Predict the 3D structure of the following.
Amino acid sequence: MAGSILIYLTIYAILAFGITRFIIPHLGSGDVRIPEKLPSGMDEIISKMKEKAENGAQFLELAYDYLGSRYRSERFNTFFKFHYLFLPLEKVWASPGFMPCTQTNFLLRIFLVKSGFFKDEDIRRKHIPVNFVPHQYLVVRVDGKWINADAGEKQRGMKLGEYLKWFG
């Protein structure tokens, strides 16, 4: 019995934390480039934030607050709305509310790079298991320091600099 449970847990771990990285966009293998053409309205919002921000740290805070207020991650909805993981950028942008962490992080990455304050190499994706489901957050280099950014969890009280832990 214990051996069977261990086998099932091992298979689940390989599927959930290994194979998914090759299937789900923005999760792991192969990096999706920042698009040249952005969905309608996104450029304007980035430009307004850029005007308000005096530096990268301020822009990161503005983008985190905006996207974290517009989108939220939910582990159970990630299962029930699995197809959201594969939505094109235009559909993600037009659909505030629930969005998987990978999609919210892709939006944050776009905002940061398009702002001109950051380069893609200033942004790292981190993956951790949360409640037995893969979760992603970003780590952003600001003035030589790395800052955690888990924008999809902002509506649950997560502040810039924090990230969801194992059993969030």
